[in-house]
């Protein structure tokens, strides 16, 4: 196979951080149905990449404490080489995706997955994931909870931090 024409599969791993609780409790607490509290990551070149409170991390696919994803979405393929991708991640990790830039609602794992998916494939991740924060915040309960939720920093254990920038907490 000619390495100059190689393509690499790109997948989106979707995890429900609530383990099914959001589906059961959201109608009572929020007055609307949420199917999950989503954490996502991009799987490409044999590794899983995600953004959390410690910055950009990687692990073998399914290698965090979250275990097996609830859903895997095939985002297509990319001709971007692993070397170029790692340079891209490194630049993101030094700027917009440092650990101290993590915000549960505005700038989280799903923001990262969406940006990386577009870089690799030109495709966005499903809207039901990126729309989740506004769905929650559009409810009275979401507004009340916002100060508490804003202080939450999610970092699934088990990943290797790509850029070791200590958070400014």
C-alpha-based Rg, rounded: 16 Å
Helix share of residues? 25-40%
Report the span from N to C terminus.
48 Å
**Rough outline:** globular
- Number of helix segments? 6
**Approximately what portion of the residues adopt beta-strand conformation?**
15-25%
Total E-strand runs = 6
Describe this structure in words.
- By secondary structure, the chain is an alpha+beta fold.
- The protein has helices spanning about 20-30, 80-95, 110-120, 125-130, 130-135, 140-150, and strands at about 10-15, 40-45, 45-50, 55-60, 70-80, 160.
- It has a 6-stranded antiparallel β-sheet with strand order 5-1-2-3-4-6, with helices on one face.
- The chain is globular.
What is the strand and helix layout of this fold?
Blueprint: E1 8-16, H1 21-29, E2 38-44, E3 47-52, E4 55-59, E5 71-78, H2 82-94, H3 109-121, H4 127-130, H5 132-137, H6 140-150, E6 160-161
Antiparallel strand pairs: 1-2, 1-5, 2-3, 3-4, 4-6
Give short descriptive properties of this protein.
disordered C terminus, alpha+beta, 6 helices, single chain, 33% helix
Short précis:
It contains 6 helices and 6 strands. It is of the alpha+beta class. A 6-stranded antiparallel sheet has the order 5-1-2-3-4-6, with helices on one face.
């Amino acid at each position: 196979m000619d390495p100059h024409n190689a393509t690499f599969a790109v997948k989106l791993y979707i995890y429900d951080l609530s383990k099914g609780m959001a589906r059961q409790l959201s109608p009572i607490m929020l007055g609307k149905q949420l199917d999950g509290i989503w954490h996502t990551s991009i799987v490409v070149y044999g590794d899983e990449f995600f953004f959390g409170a410690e910055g950009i991390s990687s692990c073998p696919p399914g290698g965090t404490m979250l275990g097996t994803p609830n859903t895997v979405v095939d985002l297509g393929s990319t001709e971007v080489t692993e070397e170029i991708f790692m340079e891209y991640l490194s630049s993101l990790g030094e700027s917009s995706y440092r650990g101290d830039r993590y915000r549960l609602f505005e700038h989280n794992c799903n923001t990262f997955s969406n940006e990386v998916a577009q870089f690799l494939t030109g495709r966005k991740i499903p809207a039901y994931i990126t729309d989740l924060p506004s769905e929650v915040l559009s409810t009275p309960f979401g507004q009340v909870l916002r100060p508490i939720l804003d202080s939450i920093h999610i970092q699934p254990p088990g990943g290797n931090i790509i850029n070791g920038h200590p958070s400014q907490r």
